[in-house]
Design a protein that fits this description.
two-stranded antiparallel sheet, 46% helix, 6% strand
Length: 488
C-alpha cells in the first residue's frame, strides 16, 4: 500500500461533485476534481445543490455506513457477535468481536478514510457555494448550513472513535506545506469538540424547520436535527445544562405509537425521526450499500450474510425487563414470522439477526430501501432525562424516561434516587437504541465498558480500548506529527 493512502485517498482528493439526473436528492454520481475554470458550470441552483447532495451520497458508501461501520459500532460491543459462518471472518470482524484489533485492522482505515472523504466534500461545498452568485441566496445559505451539519456529524464520529484527529477545515492544496502539516497533525479532542459545536451553532442559524422540506427534499438536515446533534455532543462532554437547553429546542416531534413501525418503509422520516440516512432500493436506486444484505439471515430461508448477530445477553436484557415489544422488533430469531408474513425457518445459520436492518421489499438484494435512523425523538427524551438527573433534578427526569418506557408497553421505572435513575437511563438507551450505532460509544462515555465486556466474555483493557487505534498508514505518513493512541 502506497504511503499516501490516507492523505491522497481520504483528505487531499478534490473529489466531488456532479449530480446525475434523478428524482431523489441522494442519487448522485460523484466525479473527480472540479477545475477552478469550470466552476461556472455549477453557478445555478442545481449546481449549488449538487455539492451538498454529494455529501449525503457519501453516507451510502460501503466504507462509510456498511461493513466497517457495523463492525466498529455493533460487533465490538455486547449487543452483537460476529455472526455469519465460523470460517467467514468478514476480513476482520472476528478480530473486532474479540477486541484483538490493532492499528492495521482494516475497518479502522475505512472508518477514518471514509469520514475524511465526506469532510472533504463538505469543505468543497463550503468553498464553492458562496461563489455561485447566480444561485438563489436563500438556497445557498441553507446548503451551507447542511454542509456544516454534516461535517459536524462526521467529526463527531471521528472524535468518539479516535479522540483527537486532524482538523481539516478547508480544501487542502496539494504541495502547500502548511496544508500537508494540517492534514497530518492531530488536534486535541477538546479542539475537535469545539469545532463541532461551532459548526452546529452556525447550522442552527440558517437551517429551516423540517416542515419546510417536501417531496425529494424530505430527510435533509433541519434546525431540529442540528439542535438534537448539539445536545448529544454536549452529553458526551458532560455539559449537562447545555444538553438540556438544546433538547428544549427540539420541537415538533413525537414518539411513534408502535415501535416496530419506525423501521418500516412507511416509518421513514416520520414524526419521531430527527435525522436519518435515506436509501432507495432496486437497480435504479441508491441504497446504503449492502447494509441490509450483510446483516440478513444466513442459510436456508435466509437472504443475507448473517453478520452482526444480536447477542443472547441483549435478548435476555429485553426479556428481563418484560420488554417483548422492542425485543421482537429488534431481534429476528429462528422460526419467526416477520411483520410482512415472511417466515424465517428453523434452519438459518445463526440464532438471532438484526431486525432493524430488514428490508421487506428488497430482502435478497444488495440495493435495499433500508434507512439508518441516527437521531430520534426518543433519544432526545433520554438525553434530557440523563442530563437533568446529573444536574440533581431526578424528579424532573423520571417522566421523560417513562414516556419511552410507556411507548414500549412496559411499566414505569421504579428508580427514585439519582444513582438508580442513572443506571435505569443507561439500560433504557441500550434497549431503545440497539443497532443504531451508539452502544459501544455509550459504554465508553459512561464507564460501563469493562464490566459489560467481561459479562460478554471479552477482555476490555482500561487505558487502551476507550479509543480505537489510528490507522497505521496514517501514523506512518504523519511521522512525528501525530502520535498513536495509548496501548497500540
Amino acid at each position: 500500500m502506497n504511503k499516501k493512502y490516507i492523505i491522497a485517498a481520504a483528505i487531499l482528493i478534490l473529489g466531488a461533485i456532479n449530480q446525475s439526473c434523478s428524482d431523489d436528492f441522494i442519487d448522485v454520481s460523484p466525479t473527480e476534481a472540479i477545475p477552478e475554470s469550470a466552476i461556472e458550470i455549477y453557478n445555478n441552483n442545481e449546481g449549488a445543490n449538487s455539492f451538498v447532495t454529494a455529501i449525503y451520497a457519501k453516507f451510502l458508501d460501503w466504507n462509510m455506513s456498511t461493513f466497517a461501520w457495523i463492525g466498529v459500532t455493533s460487533i465490538v460491543s455486547d449487543d452483537a457477535d460476529k455472526g455469519s459462518s465460523p470460517g467467514d471472518t468478514g476480513s476482520d470482524k472476528d478480530i473486532l468481536d474479540a477486541l484483538n484489533f490493532t492499528p492495521s485492522t482494516p475497518s479502522f482505515k475505512e472508518l477514518f478514510a471514509a469520514n475524511y472523504q465526506g469532510i472533504n466534500r463538505c469543505n468543497q461545498a463550503l468553498k464553492y457555494i458562496p461563489q455561485l452568485d447566480k444561485a438563489d441566496p436563500e438556497l445557498r445559505e441553507r446548503l451551507i448550513g447542511e454542509a456544516k451539519f454534516l461535517r459536524a456529524f462526521m467529526y463527531f464520529t471521528l472524535v468518539r472513535s479516535f479522540g483527537g484527529v486532524p482538523l481539516v477545515d478547508h480544501v487542502p492544496v496539494s504541495g502547500v506545506e502548511e496544508d500537508r502539516i494540517m492534514t497530518l497533525t492531530r488536534k486535541s479532542k477538546e479542539e475537535i469538540y469545539a469545532f463541532i459545536e461551532q459548526d452546529l451553532r452556525d447550522a442552527i442559524e440558517v437551517l429551516p424547520d423540517r416542515s419546510t422540506y417536501t417531496g425529494n427534499n424530505v430527510g435533509r438536515a433541519s434546525v431540529g436535527a442540528a439542535h438534537a446533534l448539539l445536545a448529544k455532543v454536549y452529553l458526551y462532554q458532560k455539559k449537562w445544562q447545555l444538553a438540556v437547553d438544546e433538547c428544549n429546542k427540539v420541537t415538533g416531534y413525537s414518539l411513534t405509537p408502535n415501535f416496530q413501525d419506525i423501521y418500516k418503509v412507511s416509518g421513514e422520516n416520520n414524526a419521531e425521526s430527527i435525522f436519518e440516512i435515506n436509501g432507495s432500493g432496486g437497480t435504479a436506486g441508491r441504497a446504503i450499500q449492502q447494509y441490509s444484505q450483510v446483516q440478513g439471515a444466513r442459510g436456508t430461508t435466509g437472504w443475507g450474510w448473517g453478520f452482526a448477530t444480536p447477542t443472547q445477553g441483549l435478548y435476555d436484557a429485553y426479556t428481563a425487563e418484560g420488554d417483548t415489544e422492542r425485543r421482537d422488533a429488534t431481534i429476528i430469531h429462528r422460526d419467526m414470522t416477520l411483520y410482512d408474513g415472511y417466515h424465517v425457518g428453523p434452519n438459518v445459520e445463526n440464532k438471532f439477526y438484526n431486525y432493524k436492518a430488514y428490508s421487506s421489499n428488497y430482502r435478497d438484494q444488495a440495493s435495499t430501501d433500508v434507512n439508518i435512523r441516527y437521531l430520534r425523538y426518543a433519544e432526545i427524551l433520554l438525553i434530557k432525562a440523563e442530563a437533568l438527573n446529573e444536574l440533581g433534578q431526578t424528579s424532573a427526569a423520571i417522566p421523560l424516561l417513562n414516556q419511552v418506557r410507556q411507548r414500549a408497553g412496559i411499566a414505569d421505572t421504579n428508580a427514585s434516587t439519582q444513582s438508580a435513575l442513572r443506571t435505569a437511563i443507561w439500560k433504557e438507551r441500550r434497549l431503545e437504541l440497539a443497532f443504531e450505532h451508539d452502544r459501544w460509544f455509550d459504554l465508553i462515555r459512561t464507564g460501563q465498558a469493562q464490566a459489560a465486556m467481561a459479562a460478554d466474555g471479552k477482555n476490555f483493557v482500561a487505558g487502551k480500548h476507550e479509543l480505537f487505534p489510528l490507522p497505521q498508514d496514517f501514523i506512518s505518513e504523519a511521522g512525528g506529527l501525530s502520535a498513536q493512541n495509548p496501548g497500540y
